[in-house]
Design brief:
about 300 residues; alpha/beta; Rossmann fold; Uridine Diphospho-n-acetylenolpyruvylglucosamine Reductase, domain 3; 2 domains; six-stranded mixed beta sheet; 11 helices
Amino acid sequence: MDLLERVRGTGLLEEGGRVVVLLSGGRDSVCLLDVAARLGEASALHVNYGLRDAAHADEAACRSLCARLEVPLEVRRVQRPDGSGNLQAWARDVRYAAGAQLAAARDAALAAGHTATDQAETILYRLAAAPSRRALLGMAARDGRLVRPLLGVTREETAAHCLARGLGWVEDAGNDSGQFARGRVRNALVPALRAVHPGAERNVLRAAQLLREEAAVLDEIVDTALAGRDHVTLHHLRILPPALGRLVLRRLAEEATGGLCPRVSARFEDVLDLGDHAMLDLGDGARAVVARGVLRFERTPPLGSPVV
């Protein structure tokens, strides 16, 4: 089965549907745009950060590709502000925010070109940087409007598709640089695992898939434990199995803050030690508040906020 049919089989790109493709000009996004244009009503978004000498050449390559595929292209040129923190995180946030805005305006899906190779690298990186069950789940194939239709395709296969279709792509030397953690995972850790077992990447992906299926079961158990409530008594929390208690704690924190709270689970014992009237900041913007033995969560107020 060719790559086009494999992507069609995922159902992530609706036949004839609208989709905005995040186009960097690299092999994976070029492959994705070609497939998306053949399946539906595709358009592309390229973000020019102006950070590399080749940035304008990358933009020109994207314009040429879109003209060839007869796909509308929107280019956003941005400048990194002072104090924006981690470069890659800033660039990712800008790209996804621009993509989400454009997809919403066009009532379209937003497609990113992450591959099975990227998935394996992501899982390995997260395992090293943020050990938790969630870290091992990898990237979701669908997250709201965002879809990743190439998660079942390797980087080698996207390159083969582009070559077969006569589509060129640009190479970003920074992707393989040891300057960034992802580059070190790609160039050192992944080859080391392949040396241990030739099917290492495939086994990592299979493990993630199994864990994702098991995570769905665990979510149902947490639903049962909370029974639709946005709170839990400390007594109830103390009699739950610790593993379930940590999941309940994180669920309450994330629903209250609207964001991920991976550090909350590690503070489970601290929460159990709270009295019937207490308050404790747990990190990730989550604050545990106990009143009359009932635990709820709220957002941690910004520094300097008046104490109520």
